[in-house]
Specification:
The protein has nine helices and 14 strands. The protein has about 280 residues and is an alpha/beta fold. The chain folds into two domains: about 80 residues, Alpha-Beta Plaits, CATH 3.30.70; about 160 residues, Vaccinia Virus protein VP39 (Rossmann fold, 3-Layer(aba) Sandwich), CATH 3.40.50.150.
């Protein structure tokens, strides 16, 4: 498989909305650098479909009152060059107090807990603000929770599997991961193997597939999906238990919180990072 690398120039205020829309259009990953977004799409989507998606994103930005000025250029990257191109871009990064995310070709020499993530295929390399916030909070809770509570972890919208991998390395006993994207499932399975984890179940589909209750649910997803699945998330959360919802853009959090409150949960804390919001809730 080959890939298209798009370099898109876009204003700050419209960047996050565009990234969300591109991810829905099949974008596999983005790297942000100031006002330039580098976005990767698999070639099987076809170049016309990708440029059409960008044109309709421009229209949506305009309709939402956001700055719709954007320019882009793209190149095709063959499979071999793709690996090299990712390798150059992904360097180990430290997150939270004691986690380091590193690609499989790097060695961890700093004594921190390593999360080995092959970034080749799905969202969740740890470079995105929402993933970093989720990791930091999972780390914090894995320390604060009394041991029987650090039992079961549900990763709803797992992407590369990074949140579940972190949870297991931080002491959770068992993790279930779901994602509707088959590429994410492949990535999560590969990453679970790279981290030699066995107590992890990875299923293609949404949260409706999941049975049982969990001590901690992490859901780094668009607000519409969080709202649609509020009932099932609340139902799947142990009492006591923690739900960590992320992936909301500032301004969207109130609707998500209202949906969760209707299901009997209340907010413990909210975290703002740039334009992104994460919320911790419990019963
Ligand atoms: N958990 C990772 C992280 O925190 O970096 C990846 C989060 S990424 C923003 C969202 C993921 O949710 C994508 O991999 C996407 O395929 C998946 N997803 C979107 N809608 C979903 C749904 N209804 N059910 C399950 N997964 C979904």
């Amino acid at each position: 498989m080959g890939y298209y690398e798009f370099k898109i120039k876009i204003s700050d205020e419209s960047k996050d909305a565009l990234i969300q829309m591109m991810s829905q259009a099949g974008c596999l990953g983005v790297i942000e650098n100031g006002n330039t977004i580098t976005a990767y799409f698999p070639d099987f989507l076809g170049i016309n479909k990708i440029t059409d998606a960008l044109s309709s994103s421009k229209k949506t930005l305009k309709d939402s009152g956001l700055d719709d000025k954007m320019s882009f250029e793209y190149v095709f990257i063959g499979e071999r060059d793709w690996n090299e191109s990712w390798k150059k871009k992904f360097k180990p990064i430290d997150v939270g107090e004691n986690l380091t995310i590193l690609p499989p070709w790097e060695e961890n020499s700093n004594g921190r807990i390593s999360l080995i993530i092959d970034p080749g295929m799905a969202f969740g390399t740890g470079h995105h603000e929402t993933t970093k916030t989720c990791l930091t909070l999972i780390e914090r809770f894995s320390k604060d929770l009394i041991p029987p509570l650090v039992n079961s972890f549900l990763d709803f919208g797992t992407g590369t599997g990074i949140l579940a991998i972190a949870a297991l390395k931080l002491g959770f006993k068992h993790a279930v991961c779901v994602d509707i994207d088959p590429l994410a499932i492949d990535a999560a399975q590969r990453n679970a193997e790279l981290n030699t984890l066995e107590n992890i179940e990875i299923k293609e589909g949404s949260i409706s597939l999941v049975d049982g209750k969990f001590d901690f649910i992490a859901a780094n997803l668009m607000s519409e999906i969080l709202i649609q699945n509020a009932h099932k998330m609340a139902f799947s959360l142990n009492k006591p238990g923690i739900a960590l919802l992320s992936g909301m853009i500032v301004g969207q959090e109130d609707d998500v919180i209202t949906a969760m409150e209707k299901e009997g949960l209340h907010v413990l804390e909210k975290f703002y990072d740039g334009r992104w919001v994460s919320v911790l809730l419990t019963h």
